[in-house]
Amino acid sequence: MPPQNQQLRVLIVRLGAMGDILHALPAITALRAARADWYIGWAVEPQWRGLLCAECSSPPSGRSPQMPLVDAIHIIPAKQWARYPLSAALHEIPRVRRELRESRYDIAIDLQGAVRSAVIARWTRAERIIGEDKPRERAARWLFTERIPTSGVHVIEQGIEVANAVLGESLSFAPPLLPAEKSAEQEAAAIPQPFVLLSPGAGWGAKRWPIDRYAAVARQLSRDGYNIVINAGPGEEAIGIDLMYQLSGASGITTLQPSLTELIALTRCASLVIAVDTGPLHLACALGKPVVGIFGPTDPARNGPFGCAFRVLRHPESRRDHTRHSEPEAGLLTITPESVLGAAMDLLRATKTESLPGSLRESRGKCL
């Protein structure tokens, strides 16, 4: 256990994806709260830097509302390296290795659990390379100097257990620190209230709930007086267009293609978020917003909503399966618009009557 007054330099390696980074944030937020003077860096893929720094092409020096959690961001374009391995080996990899070594980290924490991420942690030449005892890719454990057994069911709990091992003490769940950019917050606050945010996209087809069912939910919420904002993320433009087409004639419907910074601001102002197991669902929970999670082939006990008011809908016969099938999983198709609407109205009524626990109505969920 490091002495209380010892100032250490710590690198977090969690390259992606969006939901996985959001699941890692509570552990590092708790670590930051316990050791405010430590220097914390984060190695991340370029497309996810907005979760750590608001609209930062080059991150600011030191912490600020734009970059509240970490002191440095190291951009690791690992997916690009896989596409262009020769160029990466000749130019990018030597640059990143040099950057990490010159940062003089004492500890590197691999929260990804892959061989690739463990190798990046090793590039720091830190004295302590820490990861889970049973990482996602088992071979990665042999690259750690410390292997931490975890017993938590949810990945957020497991991340906190790893952070506990760094300090040698017990940390509690901490609502994640997420960046804020003033202009994005102002634009989101100008959207007519109240609104429900729908995020119909998903990483692969087996997790995707049918668009016509989102349309049925949106129409009824519109009749009940709620505006609807559709989040069409990168590569999901066609989904957004299809949903808008099915909602022709309904009032108060808006489709947006926000950046990560804009999506954070937009989610802060939403009354409710409805989505499948995807990054925007986990972002809403990180901000303390009520969510309806529609689950099929992924396990909500491990990857579902955590630290917010939520309703999860999942067929009891759905089984965990990360095979990238293109068609929706059979159990997912048993979830009806009526059940989603019922869960949504339960949460919206609870919010209106302020019956949510006080801890869920704090600044992380405030529309600034």
Quickly give the structural class: alpha/beta
- Low-pLDDT segments: 355-365
Can you give the mean pLDDT?
91
- Secondary structure: number of strands: 12
What is the radius of gyration computed over CA atoms, rounded to a whole number of angstroms? 21 Å
**Beta-strand level of the residues, as a percent range?**
5-15%
Helix content: 25-40%
Order of helices and strands: EHEEHHEHEEHHEHEHEHEHEHEH
- Number of helical elements: 12
Distance between the termini: 39 Å
Description:
The protein is of the alpha/beta class and 368 residues long. Helix content is 36%, strand content 15%. It has 12 helices and 12 strands. It has a 6-stranded parallel sheet with strand order 3-2-1-4-5-6. A 6-stranded parallel sheet has the order 9-8-7-10-11-12, sandwiched between helices. Helix 1 (18-34) runs parallel beside helix 5, helix 1 runs parallel beside helix 10 and helix 7 (211-223) packs parallel to helix 12.
Provide a brief overview of the structure:
The protein has 368 residues and is of the alpha/beta class. Helices cover 36% and strands 15% of the residues. The strands form 2 sheets. The protein has a 6-stranded parallel β-sheet with strand order 3-2-1-4-5-6.
